[in-house]
Amino acid sequence: MGIKFLNGGFLTTIQDMGRTGYQESGMSVSGVMDQRSAALANILVGNDENEGVMEVTLMGPMAEFTADNIIAVTGANLGAKLNGKELPMYQAVQVHKGDSLSFAGMFSGSRAYVAFAGGLDIPVIMGSKSTNLKSRVGGYEGRKLGAGDEIAFTAPKTTLPNMHLRKIKPDDFTATEQVLRVVMGPQDDYFTEKGLDTFLSATYAFTNESDRMGCRCEGEVIEHKNGGDIITDGIAFGAIQVPSHGQPIIMMADHQTTGGYTKIASVISVDLPKVAQSRPGYKVKFRKVSIEEAQELYIAQVEEFKALKEKLSKAPEPAAERDAVIQAAVAHEASKYWGSAGTYKVRIDGEEFIVELQEERTGLR
Protein backbone atom coordinates (compact mmCIF):
# COMPACT_ATOMS: atom_id res chain seq x y z
CA MET A 1 0.00 0.00 0.00
CA GLY A 2 1.62 3.21 1.18
CA ILE A 3 1.04 5.37 4.25
CA LYS A 4 -1.70 5.17 6.90
CA PHE A 5 -2.54 8.06 9.23
CA LEU A 6 -3.05 7.67 12.96
CA ASN A 7 -3.97 11.35 13.12
CA GLY A 8 -3.86 14.17 10.61
CA GLY A 9 -2.20 16.91 12.63
CA PHE A 10 -3.41 20.51 12.44
CA LEU A 11 -3.83 20.75 8.66
CA THR A 12 -2.30 18.14 6.38
CA THR A 13 -3.35 18.04 2.73
CA ILE A 14 -2.19 16.68 -0.60
CA GLN A 15 -1.01 19.40 -2.96
CA ASP A 16 0.95 19.78 -6.19
CA MET A 17 1.77 22.92 -8.17
CA GLY A 18 -1.90 23.74 -8.63
CA ARG A 19 -4.98 23.43 -10.81
CA THR A 20 -4.32 25.88 -13.62
CA GLY A 21 -6.63 26.86 -16.46
CA TYR A 22 -9.93 27.01 -14.55
CA GLN A 23 -9.94 30.42 -12.86
CA GLU A 24 -12.30 31.78 -15.51
CA SER A 25 -14.82 29.27 -14.15
CA GLY A 26 -14.24 30.38 -10.56
CA MET A 27 -11.97 27.46 -9.57
CA SER A 28 -8.97 28.55 -7.51
CA VAL A 29 -5.54 27.25 -8.48
CA SER A 30 -4.75 25.98 -4.95
CA GLY A 31 -1.53 23.92 -4.82
CA VAL A 32 1.39 24.12 -2.41
CA MET A 33 2.00 27.34 -0.49
CA ASP A 34 5.80 26.99 -0.72
CA GLN A 35 6.55 25.91 -4.28
CA ARG A 36 10.31 25.87 -3.79
CA SER A 37 10.27 23.44 -0.86
CA ALA A 38 7.80 21.14 -2.60
CA ALA A 39 9.84 21.10 -5.82
CA LEU A 40 13.07 20.28 -3.95
CA ALA A 41 11.40 17.43 -2.05
CA ASN A 42 10.21 15.88 -5.32
CA ILE A 43 13.58 16.32 -7.03
CA LEU A 44 15.37 14.61 -4.14
CA VAL A 45 13.22 11.48 -4.54
CA GLY A 46 13.40 11.45 -8.33
CA ASN A 47 9.88 12.74 -9.06
CA ASP A 48 8.65 15.39 -11.44
CA GLU A 49 8.37 18.70 -9.56
CA ASN A 50 4.60 18.72 -10.09
CA GLU A 51 4.01 15.40 -8.31
CA GLY A 52 1.64 15.53 -5.35
CA VAL A 53 3.23 15.97 -1.93
CA MET A 54 1.99 16.08 1.62
CA GLU A 55 1.78 19.65 2.92
CA VAL A 56 2.08 19.70 6.71
CA THR A 57 1.01 22.88 8.51
CA LEU A 58 2.35 23.79 11.97
CA MET A 59 1.54 20.58 13.87
CA GLY A 60 2.27 17.47 11.85
CA PRO A 61 0.46 14.13 11.64
CA MET A 62 1.37 10.69 12.94
CA ALA A 63 1.48 7.98 10.30
CA GLU A 64 2.72 4.47 9.62
CA PHE A 65 4.24 3.19 6.39
CA THR A 66 2.55 0.11 4.99
CA ALA A 67 5.10 -0.34 2.20
CA ASP A 68 8.79 0.36 1.61
CA ASN A 69 9.70 3.57 -0.20
CA ILE A 70 12.04 6.57 -0.28
CA ILE A 71 10.88 9.94 1.08
CA ALA A 72 12.24 13.47 1.53
CA VAL A 73 11.07 16.15 3.97
CA THR A 74 11.71 19.83 3.17
CA GLY A 75 10.39 23.24 4.19
CA ALA A 76 9.71 24.11 7.82
CA ASN A 77 11.47 22.28 10.61
CA LEU A 78 8.50 20.77 12.40
CA GLY A 79 10.58 18.13 14.16
CA ALA A 80 10.11 15.28 11.68
CA LYS A 81 10.92 11.90 13.24
CA LEU A 82 11.22 8.39 11.86
CA ASN A 83 10.57 5.71 14.48
CA GLY A 84 11.01 8.36 17.16
CA LYS A 85 14.43 9.48 15.93
CA GLU A 86 15.24 12.71 14.12
CA LEU A 87 14.65 12.37 10.39
CA PRO A 88 17.26 14.20 8.26
CA MET A 89 15.65 17.00 6.26
CA TYR A 90 16.37 17.89 2.63
CA GLN A 91 17.65 14.35 2.11
CA ALA A 92 16.33 11.19 0.45
CA VAL A 93 15.65 8.65 3.21
CA GLN A 94 14.61 5.02 2.83
CA VAL A 95 11.61 3.94 4.89
CA HIS A 96 10.25 0.45 5.46
CA LYS A 97 6.90 -1.16 6.08
CA GLY A 98 6.05 -0.71 9.74
CA ASP A 99 8.13 2.48 10.20
CA SER A 100 6.40 5.44 11.85
CA LEU A 101 6.49 9.10 10.82
CA SER A 102 5.75 11.85 13.33
CA PHE A 103 6.40 15.54 13.97
CA ALA A 104 7.58 16.77 17.35
CA GLY A 105 7.09 20.53 17.28
CA MET A 106 7.51 23.88 15.53
CA PHE A 107 11.17 24.89 15.40
CA SER A 108 11.17 27.14 12.32
CA GLY A 109 8.78 27.97 9.52
CA SER A 110 5.15 26.95 9.18
CA ARG A 111 4.86 24.31 6.46
CA ALA A 112 6.80 21.12 5.79
CA TYR A 113 6.59 19.02 2.63
CA VAL A 114 6.91 15.26 2.33
CA ALA A 115 7.56 13.75 -1.12
CA PHE A 116 7.28 10.03 -1.86
CA ALA A 117 9.34 8.38 -4.60
CA GLY A 118 7.07 7.24 -7.42
CA GLY A 119 4.24 9.49 -6.27
CA LEU A 120 0.94 9.09 -4.42
CA ASP A 121 -2.09 7.26 -5.77
CA ILE A 122 -4.36 10.32 -5.77
CA PRO A 123 -6.92 11.00 -8.52
CA VAL A 124 -6.02 13.74 -10.98
CA ILE A 125 -8.98 16.13 -11.19
CA MET A 126 -8.84 18.93 -13.75
CA GLY A 127 -5.15 18.24 -14.26
CA SER A 128 -4.14 18.34 -10.60
CA LYS A 129 -3.95 16.32 -7.38
CA SER A 130 -4.24 19.47 -5.27
CA THR A 131 -6.80 19.80 -2.49
CA ASN A 132 -9.22 22.73 -2.78
CA LEU A 133 -10.70 22.77 0.72
CA LYS A 134 -13.42 25.34 0.03
CA SER A 135 -14.76 23.48 -3.00
CA ARG A 136 -13.98 20.01 -1.54
CA VAL A 137 -12.25 19.07 -4.78
CA GLY A 138 -9.06 17.09 -5.32
CA GLY A 139 -6.53 15.59 -2.95
CA TYR A 140 -7.90 12.99 -0.53
CA GLU A 141 -11.68 13.30 -0.88
CA GLY A 142 -11.34 17.07 -1.11
CA ARG A 143 -10.43 17.43 2.56
CA LYS A 144 -7.58 17.46 5.05
CA LEU A 145 -6.14 14.13 6.15
CA GLY A 146 -7.32 12.49 9.37
CA ALA A 147 -7.12 9.34 11.48
CA GLY A 148 -7.66 6.13 9.51
CA ASP A 149 -6.95 7.62 6.09
CA GLU A 150 -4.61 5.56 3.93
CA ILE A 151 -2.94 6.53 0.65
CA ALA A 152 -1.22 4.03 -1.63
CA PHE A 153 2.10 4.65 -3.34
CA THR A 154 1.91 4.65 -7.14
CA ALA A 155 5.38 3.27 -7.93
CA PRO A 156 7.44 3.02 -4.72
CA LYS A 157 11.22 2.70 -4.87
CA THR A 158 13.68 0.87 -2.66
CA THR A 159 16.72 2.51 -4.25
CA LEU A 160 17.53 5.50 -6.44
CA PRO A 161 20.63 6.38 -8.46
CA ASN A 162 23.23 8.35 -6.53
CA MET A 163 21.52 7.97 -3.16
CA HIS A 164 24.61 9.39 -1.44
CA LEU A 165 24.19 12.63 -3.39
CA ARG A 166 20.50 13.10 -2.63
CA LYS A 167 20.88 15.65 0.13
CA ILE A 168 21.21 19.42 0.02
CA LYS A 169 21.63 22.28 2.46
CA PRO A 170 18.26 23.08 4.10
CA ASP A 171 16.67 26.46 3.45
CA ASP A 172 16.68 28.71 6.51
CA PHE A 173 13.28 29.74 7.88
CA THR A 174 14.42 30.97 11.28
CA ALA A 175 14.20 34.71 10.49
CA THR A 176 11.26 36.53 12.09
CA GLU A 177 11.76 39.62 9.92
CA GLN A 178 11.76 39.44 6.14
CA VAL A 179 12.13 41.69 3.12
CA LEU A 180 9.68 40.83 0.36
CA ARG A 181 10.55 42.00 -3.13
CA VAL A 182 7.54 43.24 -5.08
CA VAL A 183 6.61 44.39 -8.56
CA MET A 184 4.33 47.42 -8.32
CA GLY A 185 0.81 47.47 -9.77
CA PRO A 186 -1.57 46.98 -11.38
CA GLN A 187 -3.48 49.60 -9.33
CA ASP A 188 -0.58 51.46 -7.72
CA ASP A 189 -1.91 54.64 -9.37
CA TYR A 190 -4.90 54.47 -6.99
CA PHE A 191 -2.62 55.44 -4.08
CA THR A 192 -1.20 58.81 -3.05
CA GLU A 193 2.55 59.44 -3.08
CA LYS A 194 2.42 59.27 0.70
CA GLY A 195 0.62 55.93 0.49
CA LEU A 196 3.25 54.49 -1.85
CA ASP A 197 6.07 55.77 0.37
CA THR A 198 4.40 54.22 3.41
CA PHE A 199 4.04 50.87 1.67
CA LEU A 200 7.73 50.78 0.74
CA SER A 201 9.13 52.10 4.03
CA ALA A 202 6.90 50.88 6.87
CA THR A 203 7.20 47.58 8.72
CA TYR A 204 4.14 45.32 8.81
CA ALA A 205 3.33 42.30 10.99
CA PHE A 206 1.47 39.14 9.99
CA THR A 207 -1.76 38.78 11.96
CA ASN A 208 -3.68 35.72 13.16
CA GLU A 209 -5.95 36.14 10.14
CA SER A 210 -3.60 34.25 7.84
CA ASP A 211 -4.36 31.00 6.04
CA ARG A 212 -4.01 29.30 2.66
CA MET A 213 -6.22 31.98 1.08
CA GLY A 214 -4.31 35.04 2.22
CA CYS A 215 -2.09 36.63 4.85
CA ARG A 216 -3.26 39.84 6.51
CA CYS A 217 -0.63 42.34 7.60
CA GLU A 218 -0.95 45.12 10.11
CA GLY A 219 0.94 48.40 10.32
CA GLU A 220 0.84 51.98 9.06
CA VAL A 221 -2.20 52.85 6.94
CA ILE A 222 -1.53 52.97 3.20
CA GLU A 223 -3.31 56.04 1.86
CA HIS A 224 -5.61 55.81 -1.18
CA LYS A 225 -6.60 58.67 -3.43
CA ASN A 226 -10.31 57.77 -3.48
CA GLY A 227 -10.83 54.57 -1.48
CA GLY A 228 -9.84 50.98 -2.13
CA ASP A 229 -12.78 49.67 -4.19
CA ILE A 230 -12.42 48.89 -7.89
CA ILE A 231 -14.37 47.05 -10.55
CA THR A 232 -13.69 43.37 -9.86
CA ASP A 233 -10.76 41.93 -11.80
CA GLY A 234 -8.42 38.94 -11.70
CA ILE A 235 -6.08 38.05 -8.84
CA ALA A 236 -2.71 36.29 -8.97
CA PHE A 237 -0.76 34.31 -6.35
CA GLY A 238 1.22 36.94 -4.41
CA ALA A 239 -0.99 39.93 -5.27
CA ILE A 240 -1.19 42.47 -2.42
CA GLN A 241 -4.68 43.85 -1.96
CA VAL A 242 -5.19 47.02 0.04
CA PRO A 243 -8.87 47.62 0.92
CA SER A 244 -10.10 51.02 2.10
CA HIS A 245 -8.87 50.36 5.67
CA GLY A 246 -5.31 50.67 4.29
CA GLN A 247 -3.85 47.37 5.56
CA PRO A 248 -2.21 44.99 3.02
CA ILE A 249 -3.39 41.42 2.40
CA ILE A 250 -1.10 39.04 0.49
CA MET A 251 -3.04 36.59 -1.67
CA MET A 252 -1.84 32.99 -1.33
CA ALA A 253 -2.46 29.58 -2.96
CA ASP A 254 -6.22 29.34 -2.30
CA HIS A 255 -6.88 32.97 -3.27
CA GLN A 256 -10.18 33.86 -4.89
CA THR A 257 -10.11 34.15 -8.67
CA THR A 258 -11.30 37.78 -8.73
CA GLY A 259 -11.55 40.64 -6.29
CA GLY A 260 -12.76 44.21 -5.97
CA TYR A 261 -9.97 45.78 -3.92
CA THR A 262 -6.98 47.74 -5.21
CA LYS A 263 -3.78 45.74 -5.69
CA ILE A 264 -0.77 47.91 -4.94
CA ALA A 265 1.87 45.31 -5.91
CA SER A 266 2.65 41.59 -6.17
CA VAL A 267 5.25 39.58 -4.25
CA ILE A 268 7.68 38.04 -6.75
CA SER A 269 7.45 34.26 -7.09
CA VAL A 270 10.84 33.42 -5.53
CA ASP A 271 9.90 35.31 -2.34
CA LEU A 272 6.47 33.70 -1.85
CA PRO A 273 8.01 30.87 0.24
CA LYS A 274 8.97 33.53 2.82
CA VAL A 275 5.29 34.39 3.19
CA ALA A 276 4.23 30.74 3.26
CA GLN A 277 6.71 30.00 6.06
CA SER A 278 5.83 33.04 8.20
CA ARG A 279 3.77 32.99 11.40
CA PRO A 280 1.60 35.57 13.16
CA GLY A 281 3.79 38.31 14.61
CA TYR A 282 6.55 37.96 12.03
CA LYS A 283 7.59 41.31 10.53
CA VAL A 284 7.89 42.21 6.87
CA LYS A 285 9.06 45.12 4.74
CA PHE A 286 8.36 45.51 1.02
CA ARG A 287 11.04 46.44 -1.53
CA LYS A 288 10.32 47.45 -5.11
CA VAL A 289 12.06 45.60 -7.97
CA SER A 290 11.60 45.65 -11.72
CA ILE A 291 9.83 42.97 -13.74
CA GLU A 292 13.19 42.18 -15.36
CA GLU A 293 14.84 41.58 -11.98
CA ALA A 294 11.95 39.36 -10.88
CA GLN A 295 12.29 37.35 -14.08
CA GLU A 296 16.05 36.97 -13.64
CA LEU A 297 15.58 35.66 -10.10
CA TYR A 298 12.96 33.20 -11.29
CA ILE A 299 15.20 31.96 -14.12
CA ALA A 300 18.08 31.53 -11.65
CA GLN A 301 15.88 29.29 -9.52
CA VAL A 302 14.82 27.26 -12.55
CA GLU A 303 18.49 26.78 -13.45
CA GLU A 304 19.24 25.75 -9.85
CA PHE A 305 16.59 23.03 -10.01
CA LYS A 306 17.83 21.92 -13.43
CA ALA A 307 21.42 21.60 -12.20
CA LEU A 308 20.31 19.56 -9.18
CA LYS A 309 18.27 17.18 -11.35
CA GLU A 310 21.19 16.71 -13.74
CA LYS A 311 23.54 15.99 -10.86
CA LEU A 312 21.21 13.36 -9.39
CA SER A 313 20.35 11.76 -12.74
CA LYS A 314 23.95 11.16 -13.82
CA ALA A 315 24.62 7.49 -14.46
CA PRO A 316 26.26 5.96 -11.40
CA GLU A 317 29.69 4.39 -11.75
CA PRO A 318 29.30 1.19 -13.83
CA ALA A 319 29.30 -1.94 -11.70
CA ALA A 320 32.18 -3.51 -13.62
CA GLU A 321 34.35 -0.43 -13.19
CA ARG A 322 33.39 -0.17 -9.53
CA ASP A 323 34.19 -3.84 -8.97
CA ALA A 324 37.55 -3.41 -10.70
CA VAL A 325 38.42 -0.56 -8.36
CA ILE A 326 37.45 -2.66 -5.36
CA GLN A 327 39.43 -5.66 -6.61
CA ALA A 328 42.48 -3.46 -7.24
CA ALA A 329 42.26 -2.11 -3.71
CA VAL A 330 41.94 -5.62 -2.30
CA ALA A 331 44.89 -6.82 -4.41
CA HIS A 332 46.97 -3.88 -3.25
CA GLU A 333 46.18 -4.65 0.36
CA ALA A 334 46.90 -8.35 -0.21
CA SER A 335 50.30 -7.53 -1.76
CA LYS A 336 51.51 -6.08 1.51
CA TYR A 337 53.89 -8.32 3.49
CA TRP A 338 56.53 -8.15 6.17
CA GLY A 339 60.12 -8.38 4.92
CA SER A 340 63.47 -8.50 6.70
CA ALA A 341 65.02 -5.17 7.58
CA GLY A 342 68.25 -6.67 8.91
CA THR A 343 69.74 -8.71 11.75
CA TYR A 344 71.28 -6.97 14.71
CA LYS A 345 73.22 -7.94 17.84
CA VAL A 346 71.82 -6.36 20.99
CA ARG A 347 73.47 -6.38 24.44
CA ILE A 348 71.18 -6.07 27.50
CA ASP A 349 72.60 -6.19 31.05
CA GLY A 350 75.78 -7.78 29.77
CA GLU A 351 73.90 -10.49 27.82
CA GLU A 352 73.91 -10.57 24.00
CA PHE A 353 70.83 -11.24 21.84
CA ILE A 354 70.43 -11.69 18.05
CA VAL A 355 67.39 -9.67 16.85
CA GLU A 356 65.86 -9.75 13.35
CA LEU A 357 63.82 -6.62 12.47
CA GLN A 358 61.02 -6.62 9.85
CA GLU A 359 59.20 -3.86 7.97
CA GLU A 360 55.90 -3.72 6.00
CA ARG A 361 56.45 -3.79 2.24
CA THR A 362 54.22 -3.62 -0.84
CA GLY A 363 54.75 -5.44 -4.13
CA LEU A 364 55.78 -8.86 -5.35
CA ARG A 365 57.44 -11.12 -2.85
Provide a descriptive summary of the structure in words.
By secondary structure, the chain is of the alpha+beta class. It starts with a strand and ends with a strand. It is built from five helices and 22 strands. Strand 21 and strand 22 form a beta hairpin. The strands form five sheets. It has a seven-stranded mixed beta barrel with strand order 12-19-16-17-14-13-20. It folds into three domains: 171 residues, no CATH class; 124 residues, Cyclophilin-like (Cyclophilin, Beta Barrel); 37 residues, no CATH class.
Quick rundown:
This is Allophanate hydrolase. The chain is an alpha+beta fold.
Strand content: 25-35%
Total separate domains: 3
Cα shape: globular
Biggest sheet architecture: 7 strands, mixed, barrel
Helix content: 10-25%
Low-pLDDT ranges: none
How many beta-strand runs?
22
Order of helices and strands: EEHEEEEEEEEEEHEEEEEEEHEHHEE
- Side by side, the strands of the main sheet go 12-19-16-17-14-13-20
Q: Please report the distance between the alpha carbons of the first and last residues.
A: 59 Å
Q: Count of helical segments?
A: 5
Average pLDDT, all residues: 91
**SS content category:** alpha+beta
